Amino acid sequence: MKFRTLGSEGPKVSALGLGCMRMSPFTGTVSFGKSGDDIESIATIHAALDSGINYLDTGDFYGSGHNESLVGKAIRDRRDQAFVGVKFGVLRAPWGAFLGADLRPAAVMNFASYSLQRLGVDVIDLYQPGRLDPTIPVEDTVGAIAELIRQGKVRYLGLSEVSSEQLRKAHRVHPVSVLQIEYSLATRFIEREILATARELGISIVAYNVTAHGLLAGSASVQLEPSDPRTKLSRFSTENLPQNLKTVEALVSMAEAKGYSPIQISIAWLLSRGEDIIPLVGLTRRTHLADNLSALDISLSEDELQTLDRAFAPGAIVGDRAPAEVMRFSPS
Asked: Would you state the pLDDT for residue 31?
């Protein structure tokens, strides 16, 4: 495994992180511990740890607490091998609807108490709000996390989906180690300003949704099934999807020429962007682990990188990256 330093003075973590979100149902309606999927998910986390991946990403709103309980069970006897990042504060209805965020200082403390219990740990390695609450100053939220750090309940501060200005405000209160934000060939808005700010402040980028909901896999049908949740995303609309798939053809062609999958090339591209970039790979089964790990060994030439930069220049992929109700709380 290759490792990268988290932030300017943080610990070394694996160059790939394991995103655990997809191991839980969207609404959290599940009988924990009795599902065959839970058994496979725990086995996948164990396989990732065995491979050298030590960065595990979870959230208290993933499956309404199910995901944290799952991760906690997986690391029960392997706590020293796992660096656990927790996102918190996002509010969801029982049917999964996004309701915004609650990041009042008292709520931050309360969320942390429940996360520590579900994970079965004494300290959370990385704690970060999943989205900011526009009604609460970022300084207040970060101040609450800083107090958790002083109390020994959290080790490092992270943020997720914030602007350059918000990142600076937070960093003035307490050093930020990580900014988790969407970044991929298909989603490059952070290159305008946010990435430069993070680098100026010595903050690592943890990139999620590295396949752009499977768009970069190159296998999406021009006509999605009505039940496909991606139909709610404008990138997958009947107007935009054909154009986006045409853009992805450059990636597919390169992958075929190099003997890899488009997803592997997508991950390798992110890894090439700098030692401060840590992609999260979302897995639910062990069978996909080796394919993702092989991206660590892919070398992209300068010509290949330029080809991808031209094909996926900002704006080449059309449509918003998230539903409208989520984009209201996200930088773009």
From this structure: 39
Inside any domain, residue 294: yes
Q: Specify the pLDDT at position 27.
A: 54
The CA angle 2-70-120, to the nearest 5 degrees, is: 90
For residue range 207-230, list pLDDT tens digits in order. Answer: 999 999 999 998 777 778 887 888
Residue 225 lies in a domain: no
Q: Is 310 within a domain? A: no
Q: Which domain holds residue 196?
A: 3-214+261-300
Q: Left, alpha or beta for 164 (phi > 0: left; psi -120 to 50: alpha)?
A: alpha
Please tell me the predicted confidence (pLDDT) of residue 36.
53
Please, which contacts does 248-255 make with residues 24 or more away whose CB atoms are closer than 8 Å? 248/215, 248/216, 248/218, 249/218, 250/307, 250/308, 250/311, 250/312, 251/185, 251/216, 251/218, 251/308, 251/311, 251/312, 252/218, 254/304, 254/307, 254/308, 255/218
Please state the domain count of the chain: 1
- Give the tens place of pLDDT for each residue, 127-158: 999 999 889 999 999 999 999 999 999 999 99
User: Considering 55, 62, 183, 260, which one is annotated as catalytic?
Assistant: 62
List the CATH number of the domain containing 296: 3.20.20.100
Whole-angstrom Cα distance, residue 16 to residue 157? 19
Distance separating alpha carbons of residues 308 and 316, to the nearest angstrom: 11
**Is 62 one of the annotated active-site residues of the chain?**
yes
Tokens of 70: 């799952």
Is the pLDDT reported for residue 32 higher than 70?
no
Euclidean distance between CA atoms 21 and 14, whole angstroms: 18
Predicted pLDDT of residue 207: 98
